[in-house]
Amino acid sequence: MLELQQITKVYRTGGQEVSALKDINLAFRASEFVSVLGQSGSGKTTLLNIIGGLDQYTAGDLLINGRSTKAFKDRDWDAYRNHTIGFVFQSYNLISHQTALSNVEMALTLSGVSKTERRRRAMEVLRHVGLAEQAHKRPNQMSGGQMQRVAIARALVNNPDILLADEPTGALDSETSVQIMELLKDIAKDRLVIMVTHNPDLAARYSTRIIKVLDGRIVDDSDPYSQQGASGQVAFKKTKMRFWTALALSFNNLLTKKGRTFLTAFAGSIGIIGIALILSLSNGVQDYIDQVQEDTLVAYPLSLKKDDSNSLTSLFSARMEALEGGNDHSQSGDVGVNAALENMLRSETADNDLETFKNYLEKHRKEFEALTKDIHYSYDLSPQIYAADTADGITAVNPSDLAEKLDTNNVMVKTMAANMDVWSEISSDKAMLSSQYQMVAGHLPNSADEVILMVDENNNVNDLVLYSLGLKDAEELNHLSKETADDEQTYAYDDLLGQSFKLVIQSDLFQKENGLWTDKSSDQAYMSDLINKGEDITIVGIVKPQEGTADNASVGGIGYTQALTKHISEAVKDSQIAKEQLADKGTNVFTGQAFSADVTAFSSQNLTDEQRMALAGMTAEELAAYVSQYNQNADATYEDNAKTIGIIDLEDPSSIHFYARSFEDKENLKDLIDDYNRQMKKAGKEAQVISYTDDIALVMSSVTTMINMITYVLVGFVAISLVVSSIMIAIITYISVLERTKEIGILRAMGASKKDVRRIFTAETAIEGAVSGVMGIVITLLLNLPINSIIEQITDAANISVLPVWAGAVLIAVSILLTVLAGVIPSRFAAKKDPVEALHTE
Ligand code: ADP
Ligand code: MG
């Protein structure tokens, strides 16, 4: 059944050659108990290892059932060891972190036997060797004899044809040795047992054949056997460890060193925690920004302005160009000029042609309306509003004369007073208004002469508003002292509701005197009269911004509807001065002369007959006043005059505001406008192309870009710690390989292939990686709790740090991948180990 033909084994170590076996010829019967005797170093172990396929012969041939093994591949040897051979060693070679039962099961595990079958067969052989009771003990809880019996059980469990035992009683006392010998003798009844021993007595008592070895040669054979020809082919079932088995094996191993596994996983998880935290935060902040954009910024309209040169985009791009300008003069020996200011002025964009666009918009109104809550046209026309009471002098409410009245050098206050737009046009759409504002008292305007007062969310209104409205006397401001008690003043709703102002039609500020339209706004008597005759404009409601909208622009002021603008515009059109100017757009109504760049001041040559006649009877003083009045608008253009008089063209708004329904619609709206631009470009009407700015989106997108950048940089930094932890895991795996060298040898002796060994270590690193990944994610989720509560305390924003599920999954996968990669080299190293050497390590 087994035959050695001229087997030679030469070891080469450090240039030295040792012939451990020299030209061995031996044949064995299918069932006999052979003892191999010989001095130490005579080659007994080598012989056994070669028979068992654990070591390879240098020359000769080993015939198994008549089949040559010369062409055997690694896989064939593995299968041969697993199915045909059972090994028993002097030092037992049990896997220490596994129970007796698991140790015995191992060989079956390698041959892919099912779990229940494994258990049954393992218990059976344990019973056979008399250890059924000890099945769940670990090797270190057993005596030497018991351990050797476990080893024998393990060797037998696959029901091998050949049992090889290398000094199985070498470490046992004589009584136990006898028991083991009895057991082997029993086993040898139906299979071949080859035992190496030092003990000639035992050999003589129990074995059926004694072979003596000396210096690598057979010197005596008590019962030689010659092969009776080949008994046919044998094929071995290939061993293959299932991945799950490898996983379970590694899991068991890791469980025996829980502390270290935990620490390694924790160290490995630090990189994961770092990245997960950064992702949580940036994801949360991004979500928060998106939310704010959607919830709040929709309230900000997308505005098309006639003059877009002061929008953020234009300013940004102009500034960029200005900064980049300037040629390199460093080599030319002169000083160059970077024309930043000039370029900035030059880059001023041409006016948007909103008239054409409005026309287009009206034609495609349905498309635009589908995306908007409101489309609002605004015009360059501000209502002229005065305080109704003129008894103590005239108070201009809009535009406010507060800045002029203030007797202070405080630039801040002056600028604030001068630039405060207290009166603003609100939407005419009631639904839109109720989405923006919450009614505090009264009702929304129903007609041109009704306005609302806008307060902030705490029902406050800025005192600047009250002063500019004349509700508080501006004179008080000039007599403020530190001693003046600043009692908090409040107003009952009813004091404010019904409060009315006087509207003056802008064109009425001019009166024709001596053939010249004269600005009468500084004539007290004229103005008082005009104001007293003016229409009442009444506060009918108080509103505050709807919760969640951040449109502070119109908080604390007066809101009027477009009806008022239209009313004023019509009244202006009805006025004499407007009629005159509109009748002849080429002539400056203020001077009676044609609009021309050349005529910009009073000249006695350029006068109308009416003016010439009036001048004749004037005193020098009157003449001076006349000339000054004449010069006021002498260098104007038609557009300037229209603005001065208050003429507006309803078809030509100064800006168009789109209030989108949703954030998405805002984007679609931009597409619509871009569509229009494309059409204009196609038609060659470059001048009609609209440039527009979504200032808020611009700011937000730069914030988003910044957050992304910070995230990338931080993730980059933290990734380094991930690499470091991977290297650490590689080192720990390597140490584990060194520690388990013997186990590798045992597994190989039982028929585990190199691939199986690699698999075990890969499984181990995969488990380690999964544990550290999961640990990292769990720790991150826990850390997010305090982080969120801190952020909430500081900023009021809840749940900012949220790890996206996908990120958690990806990070665990990355952790597994990295540790497996880290384990590749150590596990290859493990697989390459020579099984014989591996067995000898302690
Ligand atoms: P035995 O088991 O009879 O004591 P061995 O078979 O272990 O003897 O050793 C036979 C000879 O081969 C010895 O001289 C030993 O030094 C040598 N030898 C065994 N294994 C190796 C090895 N892996 N490398 C080099 N020499 C070895
Ligand atoms: Mg030996």
From TrEMBL:
Coiled-coil ranges from the UniProt annotation: 659-686
Protein's cellular compartments: Cell inner membrane
Domain of life: Bacteria
Topology relative to the membrane: Multi-pass membrane protein
Entry GO MF terms: ATP binding; ATP hydrolysis activity; transmembrane transporter activity
Keywords noted in UniProt: Amino-acid transport, ATP-binding, Cell membrane, Coiled coil, Membrane, Nucleotide-binding, Transmembrane, Transmembrane helix, Transport
Entry keyword Coiled coil: yes
Parts of the chain that traverse the membrane: 709-738, 759-783, 803-825
A GO biological process held by the record: amino acid transport
Domain ABC transporter: 2-240
An example Gene Ontology CC term for this record: membrane protein complex
Pfam families: ABC_tran, FtsX
Similarity annotation: Belongs to the ABC transporter superfamily. Macrolide exporter (TC 3.A.1.122) family.
Protein name from the UniProt record: ATP-binding cassette domain-containing protein
Taxonomic source organism: Streptococcus chenjunshii
